[in-house]
Amino acid sequence: MGWTEVLTTAEMRALETAAMASGAVMGLELMERAGTAVAGAIRLRWPKAGRVTVLCGPGNNGGDGYVVARQLAQAGWRVRVLGMDNTPGPDAAAMKRRWAEMGGIEPLTAAALGSDLSDLVVDAIFGTGMTRPLDREMALVSRWMGGWTPARAVTPPPIVAVDAVSGLCLDSGAWLGGERGDPGGNLPRAALTVTFHAPKVGHLLELGPVLGGELVVADIGLKTTSFRDAEGQIWSERTLAVMDPPRHLQQDRGQPLLGKRAGSHKFDHGHALIVAGTAGQGGAARLSARAALRVGAGLVTLAPPADAMAEHSGPPDALMRRAVDDAAALSRLLGDDRLRAVCLGPGCGTERAAALLEPLLASRRPAVLDADALTALAGHPAIFEGLHGGCVLTPHMGEFRRLFPDLAARLDTPRPRSPAQESAQTVALQTWRQALADMRGPLYSRLDAAREAAARSGAVVLLKGPDTVIAAPDGQARIHSAFDVPWLATAGAGDVLAGIIAGLLARGLPPLEAVATGAFLHAAAARRFGPGLIADDLPEQLPGVFRDLGL
Ligand SMILES: NC(=O)C1=CN([C@@H]2O[C@H](COP(=O)(O)OP(=O)(O)OC[C@H]3O[C@@H](n4cnc5c(N)ncnc54)[C@H](OP(=O)(O)O)[C@@H]3O)[C@@H](O)[C@H]2O)[C@@H](O)CC1
Ligand SMILES: [K+]
């Protein structure tokens, strides 16, 4: 594996619809495969048949649940099924009938769960069709799965989620059971989530990774892997996620992408300019510079104002230094074509950043704009207008809020992305593009926000977080979930990331690739060091990361 395609719920429904419309597969068959995959994953992890309670919702997620119930019963499990008193769509109804021939269906209520004694609970209540907050009864069921009952706290049995923990929005990773960002306690945490064909956006963002546990992506035989338009071109608006060390880092059309070819010259690997600030603020820029060197830029020059030069005279000795006092000095320096990329912002000071942004943007040089440069951009709309496709913005949520207040506000409010909730099943293949634009899932996501920010600014945007989201102006996006490296939340880590990206830009990687690769290397360095990490350690881990990648 490497980069993996990630889908919205509408995209998933469109793929499924296309597969059925082409006659390649029937809905009932897909449901049987989905349920079989879940039952198989359960039997692999819990090989000794025990007692299982399967909670089945009103739609096709519930249909999968009835398949799981049947298959586990056939494998010797003692199965209790709690379901809803409704007639679901034809496929789920058929699966419900088949189960009813084998066992009973009790009403799905919190009261019925109160005395449950099972070893395992299968949550097949809601999946990709989750469109609105849980009603009161389902909220109580959900709280039971989270270990809360009116009488006392209980330890719920391990939960296996079919497609998602019910209540999670698979388009945003937000919790639909309550207020966004403050979902309260007692959220259910699955031991295992089995999803189908591809991860969904919500598995990787916000609470998705926290609530989902181990994520298994089961192949249910949907052959299509990418969206292609009528001319067979892959859409530009794709979302890819790093699930494993990306293979392309080791090899790109037979050539090492990050490795260095024997006999190459330092100028073959680019020259990065790291702008530094006035006295007393130097550490940040030096962290960026060290990272740019370690990631393999051929040369790195640090550019403080002349009166701060003394402060910047320490190691690493491999750094070159050049005083840049004002916009004119930066313009002159950028007259040298060999300077391939610039990093502006870390430890720079907002005023200095604002003054230097104009010549930098005018030079059209690839540039990472971080920290103080982002604050300067937020305060100067005219400079913001000068952003271009070679620019990379690396805001954390606070900086994002200053730059794109309306987009941040939409993230804060749990409201639908679009009121149109037209059934995807009716969407014809040719009209996907329009249909998906109308039907993105129930909640506006960090991915949506980053995409809009990139389109608006014309720059590549990396929105920081444990679920880093990266978007390019043409709609391409990457998700880099790194919930396993909490030690990255440390002072200066962002400066290192900016330096890594600047180094990769200097080495000639296109902006989106530089940013996505940079996010991966940054997390990999943190992972390699482990607990106790400080930002200074990150660049020093890069050689080990490269060795691990086989460079
Ligand atoms: N796509 C694929 O390739 C495959 C998909 N498969 C499976 O299908 C699942 C998707 O099925 P789905 O579309 O029927 O949606 P699902 O999640 O069952 O929920 C829909 C029902 O819930 C209701 N409802 C929604 N929110 C509610 C709320 N808060 N409170 C109460 N009710 C609420 C909603 O009602 P409505 O909004 O229509 O009023 C509707 O009745 C998917 O996750 C996967 O498991 C596999 O079988 C095979 C391959
Ligand atoms: K579910």
TrEMBL record:
AMP binds at K464, G465, P466, D467, T468, G494. InterPro entries: Carbohydrate_kinase_pred_CS, CARKD, Nnr, Ribokinase-like, YjeF_N_dom, YjeF_N_dom_sf. Residues 12-228 form the YjeF N-terminal domain. It catalyses: (6R)-NADHX = (6S)-NADHX; (6R)-NADPHX = (6S)-NADPHX; (6S)-NADHX + ADP = AMP + phosphate + NADH + H(+); (6S)-NADPHX + ADP = AMP + phosphate + NADPH + H(+). Residues 249-549 form the YjeF C-terminal domain. Pfam families: Carb_kinase, YjeF_N. (6S)-NADPHX binds at residues 60-64, 127-133, 163, 284, 347, 396, 495. In the N-terminal section; belongs to the NnrE/AIBP family. Belongs to the NnrE/AIBP family. Catalyzes the epimerization of the S- and R-forms of NAD(P)HX, a damaged form of NAD(P)H that is a result of enzymatic or heat-dependent hydration. This is a prerequisite for the S-specific NAD(P)H-hydrate dehydratase to allow the repair of both epimers of NAD(P)HX. Catalyzes the dehydration of the S-form of NAD(P)HX at the expense of ADP, which is converted to AMP. Together with NAD(P)HX epimerase, which catalyzes the epimerization of the S- and R-forms, the enzyme allows the repair of both epimers of NAD(P)HX, a damaged form of NAD(P)H that is a result of enzymatic or heat-dependent hydration. This is Bifunctional NAD(P)H-hydrate repair enzyme. The gene is nnrE.
